[in-house]
Amino acid sequence: MHIENSEIGYTPFIVAEMSGNHNQSLDRALAIVEVAAKAGVDAIKIQTYTADTMTIDVDRPEFKITDPKSLWNGDSLYELYEKAHTPWEWHKPIFDRCKELGIIGFSTPFDETAVDFLESLDVPCYKIASFELVDIPLIKKVALTGKPIIISTGMATIEEIQEALDAARNLGCKDIVLLKCTSTYPARPEDSNLLTIPDMRQRFGCEVGLSDHTLGIGVAIASVVLGASLIEKHFTLSRSEGGVDAVFSLEPEEMKQLVEEARKAWESLGKVSFGATGSEKDSLMFRRSLYVVKDMKAGDVFTKENLRAIRPGLGLPPKHYDELLGKKVKKDVKRGTPLKWELVH
Questions:
Q1: For 182, phi and psi rounded to 5 degrees?
Q2: pLDDT tens per residue, range 154-199
Q3: Are 35 and 22 in contact (CB under 8 A)?
Q4: pTM for the complete prediction?
Q5: Which CATH number does the domain 8-49+85-269 belong to among 3.40.50.720, 3.40.640.10, 3.20.20.70, 3.40.50.2000?
Q6: Where are the alpha helices (DSSP H) in the chain?
Q7: Going by CATH, does the domain composed of 278-343 fall within 3.90.1210.10?
Q8: What is the rounded distance in angstroms from the CA atom of residue 333 to the CA atom of residue 345?
Q9: 234-267 confidence digits (pLDDT tens)
Q10: Measured between alpha carbons, how far is 25 from 33 in angstroms, rounded to an integer?
C-alpha cells in the first residue's frame, strides 16, 4: 500500500516480474503470485507472447544465441521463447489470483495480438519492454487503449525515447512511466548509471523508475534516493530450482527486504532540513558546554584548570571559551556549575 508524503509524493511502487520463472507450471505461477503478495509487492507482471509472435523457427546463425557470457548461450531464439513464454490461458487465473490478494496484475505485450488479448482481460496498464521501445506501431496500439504505459529504456537513445513518448502522447496517453534499464542479464551495478533517473524526469517530463537486472537489492534501493517511483525486479520462488531468469531474480525473503528497505529509503528523504528535528531536541542538552570544574571563590580568574567544555549542554557554548579565560567569577561557585553570563565579572 502506498504512503503519501506531501514533500516527496508516494512510496515506490514495487513490481515483481514473473517472466518465465513459472517453469511452465501454472501451479508454480500461482505460487509466485501468492508469495510475492506476502512479500508486500504492489504488482505482478507477466509477459504475453508466443514463440511465433516473437520470431520464426529457422536454422540460420542470426536466430541463435552464441554469446558465451549469455545465460541462454546455445539456444535459438525460438527455443528460448518456447520455454519462457506464459501460456495465454494462464493469464486469467494469474490475474484473478492477483485481485484476490489485493495486488495489481498486468503484462508486457510483444505484438498487437497480445494487446487485443490483454484488453479482453481488461488489464489496468501495460509495460513496453526495452527491446520493443523502437516498435512504434506497438506503442501506438497500446496508447489507443487509454491505459497507463510503463516503458523500459534499456539501450535507447534520447531520440528513441522521445519518439516512443511522442507516439504515445500524440494518441492521448498521459500516464507514462519511463524505467531506467540496463539490458544485460544479469546487469552490473557499474553499468546502471542511476544518475540518469533525475535527468530523465526533467528531460521527458514524466515519472521515472528502475527496471533492475542486477543481483541483490542495493542498486534498487539507491534508485529511490534519486527519485525512482517504480522498481521492477525479476522474482522466483527459488534460484536453485532453475528457470530462464532465475539467476538474476530475487527470492521471497529478498523481495520482502526490498519492499521494506525501499520504504525506509523513501522515508529517509524527508525534506531540506537544518537544526534539531523534533526527535533530536532532547539530545541538545548532551552537547558540550562550559562548566566550572573546580570550586571557585568570588574574584577568582577563569583558567584552563577550572573551566572546561564538557557534556551536558546547560552552560554557555564552547565558542566563548577563549574570551572567558582571564575573566573573573562574580561569586563563589561549586565544581559542576554550568557557566552563565551572570556569573562572569
A1: -115, 115
A2: 999 999 999 999 999 999 999 999 999 999 999 999 999 999 999 9
A3: no
A4: 0.88
A5: 3.20.20.70
A6: 26-39, 51-54, 77-84, 91-101, 112-120, 136-143, 158-169, 196-204, 218-225, 252-269, 321-324
A7: yes
A8: 13
A9: 999 999 998 888 999 999 999 999 999 999 999 9
A10: 13
